[in-house]
Write a structure and sequence with these properties.
The chain is of the alpha/beta class and 350 residues long. The chain has two domains: 203 residues, Thiolase/Chalcone synthase (Peroxisomal Thiolase, Chain A, domain 1), CATH 3.40.47.10; 141 residues, Peroxisomal Thiolase, Chain A, domain 1 (3-Layer(aba) Sandwich), CATH 3.40.47.10. It has 13 helices and 14 strands. The strands form three sheets. It has a nine-stranded mixed beta sheet, sandwiched between helices. The chain has a three-stranded mixed beta sheet with strand order 3-2-14. Strands 9-10 form a two-stranded antiparallel ribbon. The radius of gyration is 19 Å and the shape is globular. The relative contact order is 0.20. The model has no long low-confidence stretch (mean pLDDT 94).
Amino acid sequence: MIGGIIGYGAYIPRYRISVQELACARGDNAARIADSLGLSEKSLPGPDEDALTMAVAASKNALTRADILASVLQAVYVGSESHPYAVKPSATIVGEVLGIGNHYLAADFEFACKGGTAALQAALGVVKSGMASCALAVGSDTAQAKPGDILEYAAGAGAAAFIVSQDLTNACAVVERTLSYSSDTPDFWRRSLAAYPEHEGRFTAQPAYFAHVVAATHALLAEHNLQPTDVDHVVFHQPNGKFPLMAARQLGFSHEQLSSGLLVETLGNSYSANSLLGLTAVLDSAKPNQTIVLVSYGSGSGCDAFVIKTTEQLLAVQNKARQTRAYLAEKKYVSYATYLQHLKTLHGDV
């Protein structure tokens, strides 16, 4: 046992843009794009929403479920690929807005789409070591993609937050094991001062995503002496709607095991929040004493993998804050022109 999750929370902006709208503006075949990516629309941050505002919203939901004051937190870790400042921590801003005080550890994480799970591992480590009794880990992103690039169809937005503790008294889930799998596989990157990421298409699938996700999952199951049939829910990183389904089939998981946390079709790829939002959706509907396998993926490349066991306390907290799919269901569709205006407000000229 590594640590207990005593609170969790999600946040997804209400704005959406459809694949049809994007494809029409770009002169692409919408049906072909939707079929190849396995998604129909994506979330879009409002003009006044950045990774920090979303991180705070998700963290407040986590605090509500944990039923604790923010001042109890002794560590704050924020994972993001779209930190608003290149040099100025996001974690201290989140801590200040939540009202934690001053006596807490703070750090930012960035590892492409697994910055959020890296923050979660750090939070679990710091409570396991005894350096903090209670820690907050957040994954939050306003995912960025160059206009006209295929990544633009999937780059979404959202945040997920988890409060972890070594005291399991009020834990709604327990993290039993975690491991990571890393390599220097350059499938996706953004150079310093570059406005948008670049990607090497031929590396994206097998040498990057599948090689890492499959290897990390195999290692996790072997270390924990689990078979796929022993798992109730599995969450993989969802860069599109096809990859997690293919990974599940390769590893022997069914669509039913994957379905509770599969959000990408109408959410898009929320980068550092991606797999963590899948986990929040699973926790919203899971039953006590169920086993969850979570495997993130971050380009560059690496995976963080977790075995998580739900507890009886989960039923008491599921409805204490707004659930993930409730956020996903609230939608306001925007035109391509409005979409560009939102991006310009957030990121400058597009």
